[in-house]
Structure formats: C-alpha cells, structure tokens
Amino acid sequence: MYFKRMKIEQESPEEFGYGNIKYNLTESSTTDKTMKDVGIVLPEDTLLCYGDHYGNEKLRELLAKEYGVSKDNIIITVGACMAVFTIYSALLNPGDHVIVMHPNYPADIDITHSLGCNTEYYRLKQENGFKFDVDELASMIKPETKLVNITYPHNPTGTVISEADLRKIVKICEEKKIHILVDETYGDLTVGPRTTPRAASLSPYAISIESLSKAIGVPGIRTGWIASGDDELIMKLIAAKEQICICGSVVDEECAYQVLSRREELMAPIKEDIAVKFAIVKEFMASQDVLDWVEPEGGVVCFPWIKPEIDLDVEEYHKVLNEKYGVFIGPGHWFDFDDRHFRVGYAWPSVEELKAGLQGLVDAVKDVRKN
How many CB atoms lie within 10 A of CB 308? Predict the structure, then answer.
C-alpha cells in the first residue's frame, strides 16, 4: 500500500491560502457557514468522551429514516473521504477488479491504486453529454469484479442519474452479487425536490455515502456517513473504522445532528441562492464564444472547456487567469483531463465575485489566444 498527495488537495485553496485568491471558483460546495448560521448550540457540560463506535445514536436514527434501514446500518465517518477509504479497505484486496466512474473525485480512484486493485474506468463521454449509459457500464462487469463506484449528482460535470437508470444498475449488481458504491454527497443539490431514491434503500448490495461538506456548507464539521442494508458488510466496516479512528468526534457528531435536524429549513435559502448563481452562469455561458459546456443538472459545479478551435498555450492561460485576473478554478488535471477543461464552482463565491471570476475566464482566453 502506498499513498501520494492528490493534486486536487495539494493545489486546494486552503493550501494556497484564501487570502491569495481574489475570485475563488474552485470550491465544490455552497458558501461556508458559521455555527450561528446553522443554529448550533453546544452545552458547556458536553462530555468529551469516546463516542459510540458506530456514531452518535440520535444522528444515526435520523439518517436511518431516510434510507429505510436500521440505525445499526448507518456508520458515521470523518467526512465522505473516510467513508470511501473505509469501504475500500473492508471490501477490496490487491488484484481485485474495480470499476470506477471517470472523471471523479480523485480519492475514489487513487485509493484503489494504493490498494493494488485492478482498476478499470467507466468513462463519461463529453460527446455524449457526460450521460450515464447503464448498458455500457454493465458490459464492463466481469466474474472477478468486486465493486462498482458511481457518483451522482456528478462531480465535476453536474450531470445526474435518472431513477430508472439507478434502479437498473443496482439490480444488475445485485444479481451478480457485486456491491455498488454510490457517492450521494450532492444529493440535496438536485434542481427541484430530491426525488431519486437513496441507493442503499434499493438493495443490500448498494452502499450510499454522503456528508455535510457540500450541500449545507459546513465542511469544518468533519462528518459523513455510510448506509448499507448488508449486515455482514456493516460488521466489516465497523472493524475497519475502529482500526482507523475508533470513533468520531462527539463534538462534530452533535453538531451534525443539530444541523441535519434542521436540514429542510437550512436548505431552502441555500437552494434559492444556488438558483440565482446558476442563472448567472447560464447567462454568462450564452453570452460568450470561447467556452463550451454540458449544462449541469445538479450539484454546484460545472466542467466547461475552451473550444478546440481556439489556439492557445494552456499553461500560459492558467498563469494569466491566476496572476492577472486573480481567478482560481479546478484545472482539468485534477480529474485526469487536459487543462483546457476546468471545474467551476459557482455556489461558494458571492454574486459579485462569481460575475467577476466568470468574466476573467473569457478575458484570459482573449489575452493569450493565437488566432
């Protein structure tokens, strides 16, 4: 087993320094909130003990209702990233065949390599609008496949999966007795009500993960979770969690409980804010002629690209974008793409910052283009 730093983290705003960024379009979440914003109150007599190894019981009971499982089928983790690591370490061995959606959050891919797995990518195709193709993914499943990993709403493209397609791929994996991991971190950020069922509610072979980081904008509360109706898998997962951290922070998990108890109330103004900002992005994309995109259907990110007919030095473009215009985005190499592509997070900055940052994307192209 080996680990290397992911570029997406090595080049993240928190590493570069927020004070050094004028227009931050790198973030894949809504605007960060304070404890006051989300109504957290911690009693002074909160006991700072080892917590329940599965996680805060009240929090698990709250989540269990959403997935239609027992509270003992929910495990609280330190963010969704730990959830991915815990699942991989419990299920996979060197040489196991794993199918991972690409592009994706790099940890979903890198951890499989670190574990020595035989990793195969199910690639979303730009020319197909980054749409999900159940039949294509199903055709990649082999007798030795141990796990399938997909993410919806998708990071970085913002595409979504239909309920019919989700049910179909879950059923295929169940029939083949293969676990399917569905990262639902952006689940609350669909356009309109959240209607697609949570994967873990559909089959014991489906595993859902989610966190507080993206939708509500409280990544500082390091809380995510795993939901699975597979009791045997839950035993493997809790054993792995105890090797990693024994239990989570009782403070973070109490904060998470208070936030999720008010989820619907907190999400209402957040969705209004996202709608305003997404309208700005759509208007901007329609008003310029140097960038193209697949319009996102959910989440708070999009994955535009510089049109192929435009001749420019891509490295120079990103340098000018950063140094002259103070605009920072998620370059394509974060997702194993060329840097003519980049992820734009539109929900984190203010409206004024978003507008200025978007304009910088076009101005930098005009500065460095050769034709």
Answer: 8
